[in-house]
Amino acid sequence: MTGQANLCAFPDVDILAPALRTYIAQCEQAGLLRHDVFKIAVSGGSLPNTLARALLAPATGPADELHFDKWEIFFADERAVPLDHADSNYGLLKKEFLDKIPADQGQPIVHPIDVQHLDDVQELADQYEQVLRITLSLPVVTHSVRVAFVATGGGKKDIMKAIFERGDDLPCALVNSATGERCTWFVDNPAVEGVSYPRKGFL
């Protein structure tokens, strides 16, 4: 591990989104060069909406073109609920992002949980581990080629202070420590108001 996590703060989500798109485009290009596929694991919450704002915008040039037909999407966390349930991260991603991808841009391969095992959470987890061939535990996440977090809104201030100033053995703080410069945070200014941690520009 070298250096420390990159904290990139933006005035608002409208400015954050294009930077996030550029970052993901760079990750995609690296993945395609190495494996001819781009594998990404996503979570829920407000992330699908932010991804949609970033990734559904028109490309500004070759550097941020995206090839969704080369994507495989996994879930970093998921709830044991039907895929059309209001609490399903898959359902949220589908509604906010997947269903809005233009037909001519292709569709990613998406790996949701197997709803046949909703009544047995351990079996559900075991089955998803087979889909991944790994489980998204802390050691696996920290060995990712790149890790990105997106946090927006003033409601995140307290948790961001805990992560960046105290650590508190929080999972995100542990990821920061283990991945160093491979970890990048995309945040808006309200989310890190009063947080004492050096900001970095994103190019």
Architecture overview:
Helix content is 37%, strand content 14%. Strand 3, helix 3 (89-96) and strand 4 (109-110) form a beta-alpha-beta unit. The protein is globular, with a radius of gyration of 17 Å. The strands form 2 sheets. Strands 1-6-5 form a 3-stranded parallel sheet. Strands 2-3-4 form a 3-stranded parallel sheet. With 203 residues, the protein is of the alpha/beta class. It has a domain at 13-144: Rossmann fold (3-Layer(aba) Sandwich). The protein has 7 helices and 6 strands, in the order E-H-E-H-E-H-E-H-H-E-H-H-E.
Give descriptors for this structure.
203 residues; alpha/beta; Rossmann fold; three-stranded parallel sheet; 7 helices; 14% strand
Low-confidence stretches: none
CATH architecture of the domain at 13-144: 3-Layer(aba) Sandwich
The general outline is globular
Number of strands: 6
Q: In which order are the strands of the major sheet placed?
A: 1-6-5
CATH class type of the domain at 13-144: Alpha Beta
Structural class per helix/strand content?
A: alpha/beta
Terminus-to-terminus distance = 22 Å
What is the name of the CATH topology of the domain at 13-144?
A: Rossmann fold
The helix count comes to 7
Order of helices and strands: EHEHEHEHHEHHE
Largest sheet: 3 strands, parallel
